[in-house]
């Protein structure tokens, strides 16, 4: 292994963990005092069988995977870490709005007025039931009508702010943190996976114009909607790449590990006539070295069958979140499921929108084989941890009980009206 550059004075070490349904990935990076881009100095990933649909199902297995992944990353980096930022992809992730309004009396809006409405918004969220992961001002309205991004300097009778809150259930978060702490690591922050993925693979122009980020994970599919630079909606589907793998295993009569490999090497979301003539070697369920041949079309059919169900649900969630119309045309696919051959073209046909595959950017020293859609969350975690800029809600630790119904689609409509 090549010798690692010595840590320079003033450099900060950041360590992050992406604990997913199929794997645990650890990354360590250095951030220099005069550098804007974190430099990766250690990384490792390995399979994890202790998670199910993003939730801890076997505490000991998750602890062991976390310990091994970070230990190997530390050895590669030549450093020992204690504090880590951890991704959250499940645990009942929900997005909702908390809206408050204050009287301005026709005066010019000053910084003190913004501080006042922010304080009122924080105070209006009840501290019970759920854990707040992120909360940011998503929309300001003047006199109940005009939606603005920055109200400073404008005149109004009333000023209202809608805070977009991303929260999770308490017990799953406690289980995840317990598994990480059992591996002798201190969880300094928990970052929602869609927030981290967006930081790594969405451009400022996309988030300003309006885009849906669809993170195709192993156990879950997370959808985050952005407009005018803000996350304005979120939804989660308890279905992902593992479901595709299980369907392939059942259709071909092969073990799940073999089905996963066949999906990666021979699978596709697009069917072509030659699939009926191409034969693929399929390991049998009886084990050993036994192989039998099946048409590749059977593999593709099994994959597409599950994708048809999943993308129909994604399209429904777009409707529920208000991501419709001529300003809702851009979709970015991320996560390990986005590595499937032909999936961008398939998604364009089903969703009727422009679709691209999101690849991570923003780090140096990242191994080339890890510069793929499956590592967007890990990259985003490192970028956010290195910035060390607390969001609006981290000024106060609390929990959140979501209100009845959701105002997210209403906010999306307001934003579209003002684009």
Tell me what the structure shows.
With 419 residues, this protein is an alpha+beta fold. Helix content is 33%, strand content 29%. The protein folds into three domains: 12-91 and 171-194 and 375-392, ATPase, nucleotide binding domain (Nucleotidyltransferase, domain 5, 2-Layer Sandwich), CATH 3.30.420; 94-166, Dna Ligase, domain 1, CATH 3.30.1490.110; 203-357, ATPase, nucleotide binding domain (Nucleotidyltransferase, domain 5), CATH 3.30.420.40. It has helices at residues 59-77, 111-123, 170-182, 193-201, 204-209, 241-252, 256-266, 296-321, 343-351, 376-387, 408-417; strands spanning 12-19, 23-31, 39-47, 51-52, 55-56, 83-88, 94-103, 130-142, 146-148, 158-169, 186-192, 211-216, 221-227, 230-237, 279-283, 291-295, 330-334, 354-357. A five-stranded mixed beta sheet has the order 3-2-1-6-11, sandwiched between helices. 46% of the residues are buried. Self-interacts. Interacts with FtsZ.
Keywords:
single chain; 419 residues; alpha+beta; Nucleotidyltransferase, domain 5; Dna Ligase, domain 1; 3 domains; five-stranded mixed sheet; 11 helices; 18 strands; membrane; cell cycle; Cell division protein FtsA; cell division
CATH top level of the largest domain? Alpha Beta
What is the assigned CATH homologous superfamily of the largest domain?
Answer: ATPase, nucleotide binding domain
Kindly state the number of beta strands: 18
Helix % is 25-40%
Span of the ends, CA to CA: 52 Å
What is the SS-derived class? alpha+beta
- Biggest sheet architecture: 5 strands, mixed
Question: What does the radius of gyration come to?
Answer: 23 Å
List the strand order in the largest sheet. Answer: 3-2-1-6-11
Beta-strand residue fraction: 25-35%
- What is the CATH architecture term of the largest domain? 2-Layer Sandwich
**Silhouette:** globular
Domain unit count: 3
Summarize the helix and strand pattern as letters: EEEEEHEEHEEEHEHHEEEHHEEHEHEHH
Q: What's the number of helices?
A: 11
């Amino acid at each position: 292994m090549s010798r690692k550059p010595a840590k320079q004075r003033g450099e900060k070490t950041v360590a992050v963990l992406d604990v997913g349904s199929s794997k645990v990935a650890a990354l360590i990076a250095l951030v220099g005092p005069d550098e804007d881009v974190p430099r990766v100095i250690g990384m490792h990933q390995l399979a994890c069988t202790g998670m199910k649909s993003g939730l801890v199902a076997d505490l000991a297995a998750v602890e062991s995977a976390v310990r091994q992944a970070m230990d190997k990353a530390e050895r590669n980096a030549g450093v020992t870490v204690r504090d880590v930022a951890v991704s959250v992809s499940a645990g009942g992730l929900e997005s909702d709005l908390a809206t408050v309004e204050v009287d301005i009396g026709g005066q010019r809006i000053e910084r003190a007025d913004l501080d006042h409405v922010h304080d009122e918004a924080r105070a209006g969220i009840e501290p019970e039931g759920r854990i707040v992961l992120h909360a940011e001002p998503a929309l300001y309205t003047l006199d109940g009508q005009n939606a603005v991004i920055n109200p400073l300097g404008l005149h109004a009778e009333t000023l209202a702010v809608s805070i977009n809150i991303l929260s999770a259930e308490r017990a799953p978060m406690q289980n995840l943190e317990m598994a990480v702490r059992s591996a002798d690591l201190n969880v300094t922050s928990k970052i929602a996976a869609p927030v981290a993925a967006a930081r790594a693979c969405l451009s400022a122009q996309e988030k300003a114009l309006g885009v849906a980020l669809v993170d195709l994970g192993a156990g879950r599919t997370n959808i985050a909607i952005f407009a005018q630079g803000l996350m304005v909606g979120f939804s989660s589907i308890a279905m992902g790449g593992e479901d595709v793998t299980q369907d392939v295993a059942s259709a071909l009569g092969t073990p799940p590990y073999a089905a996963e490999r066949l999906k990666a090497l021979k699978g596709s979301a697009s069917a072509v006539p030659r699939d009926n003539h191409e034969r693929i070697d399929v390991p049998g369920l009886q084990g050993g070295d036994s192989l039998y041949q099946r048409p590749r079309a059977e593999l593709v059919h099994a994959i597409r069958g599950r994708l048809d169900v999943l993308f129909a649900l994604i399209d429904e969630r777009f409707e529920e979140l208000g991501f419709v119309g001529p300003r809702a045309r851009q979709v970015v696919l991320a996560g390990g499921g986005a590595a499937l051959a032909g999936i961008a073209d398939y998604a364009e046909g089903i969703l009727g929108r422009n679709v691209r595959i999101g690849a991570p950017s923003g780090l140096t020293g990242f191994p080339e084989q890890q510069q793929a859609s499956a590592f967007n969350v890990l990259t985003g975690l490192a970028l956010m941890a290195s910035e060390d800029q607390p969001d609006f809600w981290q000024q106060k630790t609390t929990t959140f009980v979501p209100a009845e119904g959701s105002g997210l689609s209403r906010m999306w409509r307001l934003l579209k009206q003002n684009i």
